[in-house]
Design goal:
This protein is an alpha+beta fold and 701 residues long. It is built from 21 helices and 26 strands. Strand 24 and strand 25 form a beta hairpin.
Length: 701
């Protein structure tokens, strides 16, 4: 008998159907030759500190750093029953072989190996590695099973990642929580990601707008912007200068001094990996990264419409060329009409097919089965449309256009005009609303150098420079993918992927984790740091806040996963974990030496052995209502110490919620009680006696 272990019940049911396993057991399905069982995500995890050594139960600097020689695993309590079912099957004498069918990636490998080792199993294991959940793909995968040993490097990388996160997270979180008497969650990937958001928010906060002037001349059949004679900038910094230009140009005649016209082309966008799909769905639909991943998983597992979504590749292998042709030929409308010109032999290009750039999984593409299309939700349908449309678009010709620049001289002043004329729509035929290459697109008349035009009208307009935009899931994912670097060039982006923050499969969870621990809040599409998040980055050592530091670790893990020599693999993993242990010890020392003047909100902390504080904190400021008691704070509100004597002074922490503002902190309240006015997320805030007044600020305030 052969035991198949899948990661989720839904995947197990699909595999069981293909293998003919229809008899239901307790936590498994059975047939003639196979049992098929499942995990529920992680059934086994790393032990908590107190389970490693009882002395770690108490949070105390004396027990830090926590650097055990080995990190044991434990059965997770919530899924203990299913673990018992899987272990029983693994150790069943009738089972002589096991097939690992967890997700084909680093985390899936870890899930299976942890269960296998925890159960004390020693039976031979084969690995099922598939990129699609169609019946044909499952059968093909079972025909091409590989020994589990072929994936030892992937498991080693996965285990090192898990242990590194444990060591850094446990030591940093405990050390800085003890230092600042507040529950502070810190992590190897989480903290540098928070730093990226805080950096952007501080840039916005500290931004000082500069006034400049645009001078626009109307030549009748086209317009031009004044350009500085030396810098060629279209911004005039001086109002008097702008007025002088308008006076000198008004009513005069201009001549075309220079006309530059050239044909340009833009290649199609690349196929989607998970991060690119998440960014596009956020940009077009406002979906969070976590929601896009959820939809993509449903399209993969439930509907069988797309291939494995948790991929970091934007390429296909060359052996997929005939499969792609078949998929294109079977696409229903509206995609089928676009695909028709590509058939019967779609073009083969290195921009799409590159075996060297596909490791575990290729780019996300349709499977060629479309029976579930009618059952999709509106959001699922739109995400599938992105994937299907992109597969067709990447095989279309370049978008070609005529780019024109006209420089018209009026007296001593030069005016610049830009235009773009589409020549060959190419791949943009699939994206009719795509933006042009140039910022300005206006229909231009047929002109030649020396042509003259009278200035019909000229005016100057005061403008202000704008601050950077707040981060969205899309912009943050772009920075996480490339270790905090904003890289527009697609080929350079590919080369930086191994140095990103986290992996495509984990980035959405990191963002949601930051929101859960209240370091970040989501407002519409934007992600903004909370006061707590900002303060945490103020005390975080630069080495932990650095996206590049974590990016180097991620690159080491990626290299580890592809190591084929066992001895070299052992050396890589040992060096990596040694560096993590040294770094964990450094973080504890950094917490001890840190500036203790930064204050965090007192909170009711939960968790085994964690430091605790009472729910109320005295601000040491007289009550503005009765004048006899002091103002205190708890998790929900600010009140008076004389509340038992019927003082009714109360200001709720979430008083700004209906305005879309943040929760009030002790620091906010101290400033308000001291007579200051605050500006929080566009809300002007002050105390009128004991009453809190909140007013929306004018956009130009």
């Amino acid at each position: 008998m052969i035991l198949v272990v899948a990661e989720k019940p839904s995947v197990a049911r699909d595999i069981a159907r293909v293998l003919g396993c229809s008899v239901k057991g307790d936590g498994f399905l059975s047939g003639k030759d196979y049992h098929v069982t499942w995990a529920l995500g992680h059934l086994v995890g790393l032990c908590d500190p107190a389970e490693v050594d009882p002395r770690y139960k108490k949070w105390d600097f004396a027990t830090l750093p926590i650097l055990p020689e080995t990190l044991p695993t434990k059965v997770l309590p919530k899924t203990r029953k299913q673990y018992g079912a899987v272990k029983k099957l693994m150790l069943d004498p009738e089972v002589d072989r096991i097939i690992c069918a967890t997700d084909s990636g680093r985390e899936g490998e870890l899930i299976f190996r942890f269960i296998y080792l925890q159960a004390g199993c020693r039976k031979p294991v084969d690995r099922l590695w598939i990129s699609s959940m169609t019946d044909a793909a499952i059968r093909e995968g079972f025909a091409g099973l590989k020994p589990s040993e072929a994936y030892d490097a992937l498991y080693t990388s996965a285990r090192c990642r898990a242990e590194a996160d444990w060591l850094v997270g446990m030591n940093a979180s405990r050390a800085f929580s003890l230092k600042y008497d507040a529950l502070l969650s810190m992590g190897r990937v989480q903290t540098p990601t928070l730093h990226l958001i805080v950096q952007r928010d501080l840039e916005i906060r500290d931004f000082v707008p500069q006034t400049y002037y645009e001078i626009r001349a109307d030549f009748g059949d086209y317009e031009g912007l004044w350009v500085h004679p030396e810098t060629k900038e279209t911004r005039c910094p001086d109002q008097d200068k702008a007025r002088e230009v308008v006076r000198q140009v008004k009513g005069k005649t201009g001549a075309v001094e220079q006309l530059i016209s050239e044909k340009k082309r833009t290649p199609p966008p690349q196929l989607f990996d998970l991060t690119a799909l998440q960014r596009e769905a956020n940009r077009l639909m406002g979906l969070s990264a976590a929601r896009t991943l959820e939809i993509a998983q449903a399209l993969y597992e439930k509907h069988k419409l797309i291939t494995y979504p948790r991929t970091d590749s934007r390429y296909l292998t060359r052996d997929m060329i005939p499969k792609v042709a078949k998929t294109l030929g079977s696409l229903p409308e509206p995609w089928g009409g676009f695909a028709a010109p590509l058939l019967p032999k779609p073009p083969v290009t290195g921009r799409v097919y590159n075996d060297a750039k596909v490791s575990d999984h290729h780019a996300i593409v349709p499977t060629g089965q479309y029976g579930s299309l009618s059952r999709l939700t509106a959001q699922e349908a739109r995400v599938f449309d992105m994937v299907a449309r992109r597969l067709v678009a990447v095989l279309y010709p370049d978008y070609e256009y005529q780019s024109t620049q006209i420089f018209t001289r009026v007296e001593q002043h030069l005016f610049k005009t830009m235009g773009q004329t589409p020549l060959v729509p190419g791949w943009r035929a699939l994206y009719p609303s795509a933006k042009p290459e140039d910022k300005e697109q206006q229909p231009l008349p047929q002109l030649k150098e020396g042509d003259t035009r009278a200035v019909q009208k000229v005016s100057s307009k005061a403008c202000k420079t704008k601050p950077p935009s707040p981060h969205t899931d899309a912009s943050l994912l772009g920075l996480m993918e490339h270790a905090g670097r904003l890289i527009e060039d697609e080929e350079l982006r590919e080369s930086m992927k191994a140095s990103g923050l986290g992996t495509p499969a984990t980035r959405a969870a990191i963002i949601e984790r930051l929101i859960k621990v209240e370091y970040v809040k989501r407002s519409g599409k934007t992600l903004r740091a909370t006061e707590k998040g900002i303060r945490l980055t103020q005390v975080t050592p630069p080495q932990l806040a650095s996206a590049e530091t974590t990016g180097r670790w991620e690159r080491a893990l990626t290299q580890m996963a592809s190591e084929s020599d066992p001895a070299a693999l052992a050396q890589r993993s040992e060096r990596f974990m040694d560096s993590i242990r040294r770094f964990s010890a450094f973080l504890v020392e950094a917490a001890i030496q840190a500036d203790g003047t930064v204050q965090f909100e007192p909170d009711l902390r939960k968790g085994k052995g964690g430091p605790r504080k009472s729910g109320n904190s005295d601000l040491g400021v007289p009550c503005p209502l009765c004048g006899e008691g002091n103002v205190t704070a708890n998790q929900k509100a600010f009140g008076c110490t004389r509340w038992r004597e019927s003082c009714k002074f109360t200001i709720w922490r979430d008083a700004l919620k209906r305005h879309g503002g943040p929760n009030l902190t002790i620091q906010h309240m101290k400033k308000l009680l001291g007579g200051e006015q605050l500006s929080l997320d566009g809300i002007k805030l002050y105390l009128d006696g004991p009453r809190l007044v909140a007013e929306k600020e004018r956009p130009d305030a």
